[in-house]
Amino acid sequence: MARIFRHHVSPVKLTLAITDVVLIAGCAFLAEWLRLSSLDLNYAQTAVSIAAKLAIPALTFPLLLGLGAYQSDAMGDLKIFFPRMVVAFVVGILLTAALAYLLPALPLWRSILLLAFAFSAIAILVTHTGFIHFAKDSFLGRRIAILGAGPEARALKEEAENSPEAGLKIVAVFATPDGPNVLDGAIVLDEIGKRGCELIVIGDRFEKNALPVEALIACKLAGVQIMDRLTFFEEVRGYVDLDSVQEDWIVFAEGFKGGNLLERGAKRAMDIGISLVFLLAALPVLLVSALLIKLTSSGPIFYRQERVGLNRQAFDVLKLRSMTMDAEQSGVPEFAKEQDPRVTRIGGFLRRTRIDEIPQTLNVLKGDMSFVGPPPERPYFVDQLEEKVPFYRERHCMKPGITGWAQIRYPYRASFEDSRRKLEYDLYYIKNYSLFLDLLIILQTLRVVLFPHGVR
Q1: In this structure, which CATH number among 3.40.640.10, 3.30.70.141, 3.10.450.590, 3.40.50.2300 belongs to the domain 141-238?
Q2: Where do runs of H (alpha helix) occur along 202-260?
Q3: pLDDT tens sequence across 419-433
Q4: Average pLDDT, integer, range 70-84
């Protein structure tokens, strides 16, 4: 796995993304050449004309990234990828046209723009189709072997098979007839060589002396990467597997730094800047939503609710009301349910689109929250989760956020098991935090808003 500012990125995904940028840029140059040639005009390149064409991929690629064109589901299914690409290109055309209008010195003709985006769409569809069919067999893909055949190893195998963006091809699963925790070192070493494995993942917890250590050492010295379950889930799937975490791992593992003084200052400045821009841009939506809430249900437009923040300090979060006033008649907090009857008519739409969370920008400006971070939870649930879920207290070492790694990677569900799964993503974010990861999360929040999944 490649690492970009502490964040793990699949070399397959990175190569595909770079290819898309090059293709879009190349199509922009091709479109201009064809258009000028058809008019018998001189095709001369200047710094301004080059900058104009490079603006097309500079505006379009972040949209592709933000709308989830490089997520596992889109990279494995053209039916999912295609609508995301179309939306990205439509918005890209509008943004580029707006740029041409604001900067008339840029030679961005409408005919050239349309040709460039048409050529880009065809080229990218071809490359992504090729990826879907040939990724695991490409030179970028890795041939992997899994040691173990127990339930943990089977779960790991399923995760590997459902990671098309990682380009993993499972060529061997090692276990002897004597049981899943007994392995023959000679067999492992021989088969690894025959099958050309590049990565060995330890899938199960093995008892002392059960692992073929000498064979693994020989494989490592021969250039084969050895990886445990915890590292596999972190690097390939983007979360920390709680079942594999021990206390000393958090102490000795690289990361969990929370950013240096400069990064923390930059994060706060980014929070303020993004929140102000976002709040101003969303003001019309906020006003219309407030009016609809008032017209369709009785009660206040906004509601305050106590949440747990940085260092376990309580604060009041502000949201648009999406439930009835008697949502918790018993006085005991409840997780939201699927098809929850407490949600108002307009409240369901507000939740699906995350519009109900817009007022939280005021919490960000106040400093109680960050724009990106673990989602804030209610004290009632925090007390229970800290008892039932290991390492749950550690998530309070950073400010909670409106959006976050867990929010964009895991469906929006509410139960103790879901909270455990979301914590695995929160721990990845805390361990590998960087401003780059924050920007990536902000971009990919577009996908969650436009293509909602699992909202309650």
Answers
A1: 3.40.50.2300
A2: 213-221, 229-232, 247-252
A3: 888 999 999 999 999
A4: 87
